[in-house]
Specification:
The structure holds 2 protein chains of 2 kinds. Chain A is of the alpha+beta class. Chain A has 6 helices and 3 strands. In chain A, strand 1 and strand 2 form a beta hairpin. The longest helix of chain A is centred in the middle third of the chain and has 15 residues. The two termini of chain A are about 25 Å apart. About 5% of the residues of chain A have low confidence. Chain B is mainly α. Among the domains of chain B are: about 130 residues; about 180 residues, no CATH class; about 130 residues; about 110 residues. Chain B is about 65% helix and about 0% strand. In chain B, strands 1-2 form a two-stranded antiparallel ribbon. The longest helix of chain B is centred in the middle third of the chain and has 24 residues. The radius of gyration of chain B is 37 Å and the shape is globular. The two termini of chain B are about 55 Å apart. Classes of the chains: A alpha+beta, B mainly alpha. Chains A and B meet through helix 2 of A and helix 20, helix 22 and helix 42 of B.
Chain lengths: ~170, ~900
């Protein structure tokens, strides 16, 4: 991995905390009564795009000391959840970025470990954002090739490196 | 020398060291022969123990001896060890650390200026090739050496050094090294420019490195949104902390550049990052000013403040650049003496505008930044807030509560109240807040035009409650900060509250201010104010309250907007008895007919009394009747939890302050009250539970003052562990007695002894443990002991039970099988707290690891465990296990845990899923 840096000076955006819209409607009439939302009556919370974004926003970029969110590689509107099907699109910082597969693989591993196995996850490049879009997409969504890639200790280590900070969920520690 | 073993060599060094210490002049007399001889002797030494001595000798030689002919050889026998890579072996008996050697070596390296030219190439080499540790060592050494080696050398090698430092800053290996590199750059610049400081009159005189580097950084800053702009601004900020001339020069280059870039229409999309960069510069220039600022201290940012303020006011107008603009503003307002009063006014004005426009687009989280800036301004110039911000905030508060379904308006109100709460801690502003908000509460509770439909009064009540809470929270912040103006609100605010609530309670119909939540908020305010009032004033206040309680005479406590009828009487306690108050004899008159809302008022009276100083309270023999009646009243007449709770608080506080003379009252409780109300199975179980709560509060009063009566009170609780009906409640009561509360605290002038919780725990913990282990007892009695144990250790600080952990662990595991979910969650919380402990406790966890894993997994399944809290804590504990238990112990469970957690990932609750994800990642 050493030596070749694909984009030495990418644009950094500031990360913002997200508000879940459904939370606003649940407000109580009385001030300071928000603490009691944890009761069992108000039904299950389905997994939504914000939650999936939370899982992957703080994955570190393989090249820079920034998270995927800060580089706008992933964002909440680029994620769709329909039934048991999740579609994640991501945008590399430059069209010839050779790290796209590694980023995609990190996202896949994170979701593999963090989502219930009833979900089918598709990870695609934002259409038109990469030179070899088709090849990368194919590589990321082929079960056999993902499994094979994770058998490779060097590759697995670099994926693990990217995932070290993934638990921060957009908060700085 | 090399032929000798190290212990002999050590003796040789020791001899020379001794000679150095005692006969230095004689050695100097030997001249160059000695230096040359020593060099050949010390060459090639490798043993760290010997090196420590050798470095000490070398330092003396370098400083005091004539080494002009031997510079290079001396250099060779010292710099060859640089940087120190020695790592002490485990359990090193000699206790020599890397730091010792580094320190000794640096002592040599900084001893002789003529090392300079020889050292630079070595530094460059180490920086280029070393590991992060070597790099950091080299950088730290450079910081120390550069000033010694002098400015001529620094100037000559500046370019080369900067080129390698630059790499560390712009492509840092890790943040620590980056910071060291910045410090080294600072040292380099300081060394170069410190001497010629006086010669530099204008910016043109700054030549060489500082100018080159500035230009380089500013070139990078042409693209302020890019990654590299961060390190560039860090370099410039580092420059600000060097010499005044460099500081002036750097600012004169950087600030106009950034401002110009900001105003360039082509760069409009990059305004946010530009403002952030400016904020960094402003903060760094503030840091460069001395701590104590005199009027004539030069303020570096002064020449540029107009253009920067211009950029801020533009930045505030657009939402993407709002937060960066606010953080720049924070940098400006925190710089002492920078801004004039007029400018502060302008800032307050523009920030207010941001707060107002925010309403529709409240998703950019600028509120807290706005409030922060305003708070800082408020510290120095509160009049701006008073004139501009407060009127704006008050006018945005509606006169009537938003209707039930208007969630957005309600959130808007809360936002305004939050702003008021944050800003009005300042005495002048607080006075304003109290006047305006109480007026608002009055007008909500008694609107001038009665509305047609009063069926939905709840939003109004909630709004009034929010207003009162705002005052209470602000007061609480003021009490924490020790403000003296709190006490003066005993006149005005407090009588006004009494007036409002008493008047409401006397109304024949249900009105807003009878809601128990409002009463509670008002009681909170009264307690906060009265605890700060001096004893003398408290005396008359408390006397008035007792007057009201005993005779129903209300004029003493209440005064305010609503006119109480002149003959208004309000009797809460349906009691007839006597007690001495000062000199007169008062009597309680029989009163049967107090309504719920009238009885709620006890909370307000109780709040005023429980904060009183000990001396001004009437003492028990005379007060016994009152206390007894109050106690019985709390069990039989009270029809809301608020009422009995305030009665118990009042009793507890009085008993605590006068326990030494309350023997009759306490004996009566032990001998009559207990058998009659708690131990008797003829009384209904609800009432027995109530009475237990009262018992808890009396015991609490005794615990905090380490009163000898206490053991007899707790003994009684153990007696009912066999009782089917209330054994659990009695067991939990033990924990509640030890628990911390907000009533019996130092601020309320209670008699409080240190380590009271420890003493209490040491007294009963062994008994509980043996009780829970004793299998000869009936099962439900053992369970009661277990419940007592869990609720007790939940309530006390960890240090109080840590030494008992080995015997507690099996009991806690049993506690996890209890059917009560709250108890289970408490047990897991206790285990979590214990997990932070030292190695011996962690060893204890290892012994039970597989059991713990299984129990926690069982408790984290949504199907088996309906309580969200238990699921969450169980997962947290599972997540902490791998950190405290060795991997080989957990390995057998690993696959099970990962498989089972995959199911938990599908939990219906988001918060549980979050924990599950984190825990699974840890495993």
């Amino acid at each position: 991995m050493a030596g070749a840096i694909f984009n030495p000076n990418p644009t950094v955006f500031t990360a913002k905390p997200t508000v879940r819209k459904s939370d606003l409607a649940k407000q109580s009439l009385w001030i300071n009564e928000k603490a009691k939302v944890e009761d069992n009556e108000d039904g299950p919370d389905p997994i939504d795009q914000d939650e999936i974004f939370d899982l992957i926003r703080s994955i570190d970029d393989p090249e820079h000391p920034n998270t995927l969110e800060e580089l706008r590689v992933v964002s909440a509107p680029q994620i769709q959840v329909k039934g048991n099907h999740v579609l994640v699109e991501f945008t590399p910082t430059i069209p010839h970025c050779g790290m796209s597969t590694l980023i995609g693989l990190s996202i896949r591993v994170r979701l593999l470990r963090s989502l219930p196995d009833r979900y089918k996850v598709d990870i695609l490049l934002q259409p038109g954002s990469h030179q070899s879009e088709h090849a990368v997409n194919k590589q990321l969504n082929d079960k056999e090739r993902v499994a094979a890639a994770l058998e490779n200790p060097a590759l697995l280590e670099s994926v693990e490196n990217c995932l070290v900070g993934a638990g921060r969920r957009g908060h700085s520690e | 020398m090399k032929a000798l073993v190290h212990s002999v060599r050590f003796q040789v060094y020791s001899i020379i060291d001794n000679l150095m210490a005692r006969n230095r002049d004689a050695l100097k007399g030997l001249g160059k022969a000695f230096v040359g001889g020593y060099i050949s002797l010390a060459e090639g030494e490798k043993d760290p123990r010997n090196l420590l001595v050798a470095f000490a000798i070398a330092r003396v030689i370098l400083i005091e001896f004539d080494i002009s002919d031997h510079v290079e050889s001396m250099f060779n026998i010292t710099y060859c060890y640089f940087p120190i890579t020695f790592r002490p072996p485990p359990n090193d008996p000699y206790g020599i650390t890397t730091e010792d050697l580094q320190k000794a070596l640096r002592g040599c390296l900084t001893a002789c200026p003529s090392f300079g030219p020889l050292a630079v190439p070595i530094w460059l080499e180490k920086l280029a090739a070393g590991s992060p540790n070597t790099k950091r060592d080299a950088l730290q050494t450079m910081v120390l050496c550069l000033p010694v080696y002098g400015s001529a050398l620094a100037r000559a090698s500046a370019r080369k050094l900067w080129n390698s430092l630059k790499l560390e800053i712009f492509q840092p290996t890790d943040p620590l090294t980056e910071e060291e590199a910045l410090k080294t750059t600072q040292a380099l610049v300081e060394t170069i420019y410190a001497q010629e400081e006086d010669a530099i009159e204008s910016d043109d005189h700054v030549q060489g490195l500082a100018r080159d580097v500035c230009e380089e950084c500013i070139h990078i800053l042409r693209e302020p949104e890019k990654n590299q702009a961060r390190p560039a601004i860090k370099v410039l900020c580092a420059f600000l902390a060097t010499t005044p001339a460099v500081l002036r020069f750097t600012l004169s280059q950087a600030v106009p550049h950034l401002v110009k870039l900001f105003l360039n229409p082509d760069e409009a999309s990059n305004r946010a990052p530009i403002l952030l960069l400016l904020a960094d510069l402003t903060n760094a220039s503030r840091e460069s000013m001395p701590k104590a600022v005199a009027d004539d201290t030069p303020i570096p940012m002064l020449p540029y403040k107009d253009e920067v303020l211009g950029a801020v006011s533009v930045g505030l107008k657009a939402s993407p650049s709002r937060i960066p603009a606010l953080s720049l503003l924070r940098g400006l307002v925190t710089t002492p003496n920078l801004l004039t009063d007029q400018e502060l006014g302008f800032i307050v004005h523009s920030v207010d505008e941001v707060f107002q426009t925010d309403a529709s687009e409240n998703d950019d989280f600028s509120d807290s930044a706005v409030l922060e800036v305003l708070t800082i301004v408020g510290k120095t110039a509160p009049h701006h807030l008073e004139q501009q911000t407060l009127p704006m905030l008050f006018s945005s508060l509606p006169d009537q509560a938003p209707p039930r379904d208007a969630a957005n308006e309600r959130i808007e109100c809360w936002r305004t109240l939050l702003a008021l709460k944050t800003l009005c801690v300042h005495p002048e502003l607080f006075e304003n807040l109290v006047t305006r908000v109480t007026a608002k509460v009055d007008s909500i509770c008694f609107p001038e035009t009665t509305r047609d439909s009063i069926e939905d009064a709840e939003p109004d009540a909630a709004y009034a409650h929010a207003l009162l809470k705002t005052i209470a929270d602000t007061l609480s912040a003021k009490v924490d900060a020790g403000h003296v103006d709190v006490a003066k609100y005993i006149d005005g605010l407090v009588p006004g509250l009494y007036n409002l609530f008493i008047f409401s309670a006397l109304q024949p119909v249900q009105v807003i201010a009878t809601d128990h939540r409002l009463v509670r908020a008002a009681a909170e305010i009264i307690a906060l104010v009265s605890q700060r009032v001096p004893a003398q004033r408290q005396a008359s206040f408390v006397a008035a309250i007792f007057e009201a309680l005993s005779s129903g005479e209300l004029q003493g406590v209440a005064a305010g907007a609503q006119k109480l009828p002149a003959d208004a009487k309000l009797l809460l306690l349906d009691v007839k008895c006597h007690f001495y108050m000062g000199c007169g004899v008062r009597s309680f008159v029989l009163q049967e007919s107090a309504s719920t809302s009238q009885k709620n008022l006890l909370a307000l009276f109780s709040a005023g009394v429980m904060t009183a100083h000990k001396e001004i309270l009437p003492s028990p023999p005379a007060l016994d009747g009152f206390l007894n009646q109050l106690l019985i009243w709390s069990l039989t007449r009270a029809d809301h939890y608020l009422q009995s709770e305030s009665a118990w608080h009042l009793i507890s506080s009085l008993v605590n302050k006068h326990a030494d003379v309350a023997t009759i009252f306490l004996e009566d409780k032990l001998n009559n009250f207990w058998p009659q109300y708690i131990a008797s199975s003829e009384v209904s179980s609800t009432q027995r539970r109530q009475a237990l709560q009262a018992w808890v509060w009396i015991s609490k009063a005794l615990v905090v003052r380490k009163d000898p009566h206490l053991t007899r009170f707790t003994d009684r609780l153990f007696e009912v562990f066999g009782d089917n009906e209330i054994s659990w409640d009695a067991a939990k009561a033990l924990g509640e007695i030890a628990g911390v509360d907000q009533i019996l605290i130092k601020r309320h002038h209670v008699v409080l002894k240190i380590l009271h919780a420890q003493k209490f725990v040491n007294g009963i913990l062994p008994r509980i443990i043996s009780g829970a282990q004793d299998s000869s007892r009936p099962a439900h009695e053992q369970t009661a002991y277990l419940v007592a144990l869990t609720s007790l250790i939940k309530a006390i600080p960890k240090a109080a039970y840590a030494h008992e952990m080995p015997s507690l662990m099996p009991l806690l595991l049993r506690g996890l099988d209890l059917p009560d979910f709250e108890i289970r969650a408490d047990v897991i919380d206790t285990l979590l707290a214990a997990a932070e402990g030292d190695a011996s406790e962690q060893g204890l966890v290892s012994e039970h690891a597989s059991t713990l894993v299984n129990i926690m997994l069982k408790n984290s399944m949504a199907d088996d465990m309906p309580s969200v809290r238990v699921r969450t804590t169980a997962l947290q504990y599972l997540g902490i296990l791998p950190k405290i238990v060795r991997y080989d112990v957990l390995h057998p469970s690993k696959s099970t845990v990962i498989r089972e957690l995959a199911i938990v990932l599908d939990d219906p609750k988001r918060s549980v899923r979050k924990e599950a994800v984190d825990t699974r990642t840890v495993w």
